[in-house]
Amino acid sequence: MPIRIFIEPNLNSTKTAAKEIFEILNPSRSNFIFSGAMVLAPTKSCANALSRELANLSMQKFGGGIAGLEILTLEAFFCRLSRHIPSASETERRFALNFTISQFSDGDLPALFPSGIPSSPKNFFKKFLEIKTQCAHAGLSIKDAAKKISESANIESDRWKEIEKFDGIYALSLSKISKKDPADALLEALENPMGNPKKIFLVGIADAPKILFASLKKFEEKGAEIFSLIIANEALSKHFDAFGIPETNYWKDKIFDISNGDVSVPQTRLIQAQNVAEDAAKFGSKAPQTCAIACEEGSSSSAIARALASKNIKSFSPEGEKLSNGEIFDFLKTLRLYFTDCGFDSLKTIVQKDAMLSFLKHKTNLCAKKIFEIIDKYKFENFSLDLKTAMDFAKEKGDNNALSLFNAINSVLEPNAELNSEKIAQILQNLFSKTKTFDPNIKEEAESIFGILCQIKAAEEVFGKTSLAETIEILLNAADKKTFGKIRALDEIQMKNWLEIFWTTEPNLLIADFNDGQVPENISSDAFMPNSLREFLGIRAANARHARDSYFLHTILSSREKSAVKIYAPQTDFDGEPLRPSRLLLQTPKSDLAARAKHLFQDAESDKHSRAFSYSWKMKVPPAPLPACLNATDFKYYISCPFDFYLKRVLKLNSVDEKKSELDAMDVGTITHRALELLAKEDAESVSEEAIFAILKRNIDAIFKSRFGKNRPTPIELQKYFILSKFSAAAKTEALHRKNGWRTICAEKEIKELSVLNFQIKAKIDRIDFNESENKYLLIDYKTIDTAPKDTATKNHYLSKGGEFVWKDLQLPVYIASAKKFFGSENVEAAYFLITKSAEETRIEHYKNSPEAEESAKKKAEEIAQNILDYKFEPSEKSPLESDYPEYFGFASKNLGKFLDLSQIKQSTNE
Known about the structure:
- The chain is of the alpha/beta class.
- The protein folds into 6 domains: 3-82 and 194-245, Rossmann fold; 90-190; 260-320 and 487-608, Rossmann fold (3-Layer(aba) Sandwich); 324-484; 621-656 and 740-911, no CATH class; 662-725, no CATH class.
- The protein contains 39 helices and 23 strands.
- The radius of gyration is 36 Å and the shape is elongated.
């Protein structure tokens, strides 16, 4: 049995533990003093601190280091235990899993996959490997666990039989490369562990799997002495087992003396980050030496790091810099998305990456602006479905710039390679070695990535290729587990997770994310391994985690001054999903329980102390030259919002929907316009409704085929059907219009006869018809719209109130004025061709014009032109920008004017 040693909790418990270890080893001056001793620590922070303290003691006494002494985390100990057995790497495991799943067909594993084997079962792979590791830590193989479950008549027995079947094929797959899964290697190593340590020290091991104790027993049988150093007051000795594991029944009901003033309840994790930064800033320049922060790794730690930076506080994570935070890893995620669907949306995302953009600029001599203009044009105007469609269309149009760009992209994404690993390597070499000089971080990242690619290549040669997207997924999965260590600077405040913060020496702690599911960790909702099954199989279950975390909190509090620990329990996460406070916060005296519950579930602090909203910074709007001419449609933009006009026509900012996977209203309108344009050019005479519809249908078929190919997605095909259903009524309307004597004389006609102040006005008219018997011109503007109430054409332009005209749009009045000059005739009218969902509402509706309306429209156009010349671009109160550009202005909610700094463009009027 281990010898238990209790260490009074203090700010540097690892230093005290190191002294105990040093004295027990009782080194002499001449012997190789530390050989044969092993120290097991629960975390990296603890292991590093013990190593540092023991080295200092040895240096002080002997002037030498601690060679021969092994200081290991539990994870490193398990790897050491099985190092003599060839274990598969992360990459090899994933390839073997892919090979294993290929050996089964739909219906082979009905309990595991009731809906059939998924095309990308990565979530199952992750869960399967977790199950193997958990069972191994309990001293069980999958076969052992399945047998135990079957014998108990557990309802999960069918599922576990299939897991066992899958595991058997998986083991055979790995045998092709003469390796075992690390979990199986660990179980095999337990039968005859290598090495023969003379003394083993367990330091603060408060949570450990069964296999640790089984292996220690093996070493003990070989004569090893085991010492358990427990960070606790000796008066609590009866509440720990021989190895220092907290006894569940005592610790899960432990009462804590924490005042409500030391428990903060932020509304969200984002507000939590701001509160943590504010509290850290109270320590001033001494914060890094007097304060440490505990938080969940990932989004929460990133948010807190940003909030600290806003207070000029640098932060440090002992986990080091993750490879997954690097530029190459980020590019690979985009590449995986592209090779999953090969669509134009994901292609555009690749082009936006710095490495690809630099390559394309160098290869094509096109500037970034031109590259994005081409991509947007082929996505939104030409409806390109993929790179090949875009290349074919560029050839057809003779668009040399676009063709050069698409060929350059293709040269990167379609390199010659026999294996996927080689193809990925070629892509990365093209972008990250030829187009930029490696800085140290990218170089180190690249070396790690290419090292994993070598492993993938070896696995491909044994197991065969997977899909390209799956190969990249394997690469990302392996890379995500790698980190680059860095040294903490003196001015950096430490950020650690809940398990690591236990070992920090700073006297003040700010403990964030103190929610159920984090502290204690939630393990009861696992569909494969629920808490009841964990208890049955002997795997550490919820009660044990609860006891461990209760012990941790007690020790953290007892080793520090009163109110030196501040706890934050946010009410919601970053997405607004509700969070529960940790149950540990309810382990308070019964007399205080009601007050504590009221405090934890109070209205959010941010609501109680709300302040008038103000922006911490303003968006500076850059100046730009005014356009030389105005389009007839520009007046509507300016009337709606002058700043919207400035963005669209002066700065030329276009709204882009990156996630669009089907046609929107603008796409449908563009296709409709094109089909009707082709009708006018092909046959402007026929008065047969059937003949007109046949031409429209043929045009739509040709447009969809050229834009989307033959094998079109179902949403696209459905939208084609709906467009055709609208054209049935449109053909009837067109036939009647022609029977009344109207004939199309031109389509998509651009007229530049009109000027307003310094601006030439461009009027691009969808269609111009002429009625010979009436000697009259009709300017038609196509409108695809769901419903069209009476007088839509007129009401879309103006409202008449008490003889005054309130203008919303000047498009048709500008068309009329331009056409009158062009044709030298006053007999010009304008109309909407309304193409609606309802056949009854589909019609050609005339715009109500009058001399008074014309004069008013002229004055309004001159007023707008003068405002543009005077650089008057303040946003309107009801600006559409919050919905059009939510990424820029969505949060400005009715305060857009206060958010913008227009001083630079206003200066343009004086220059």
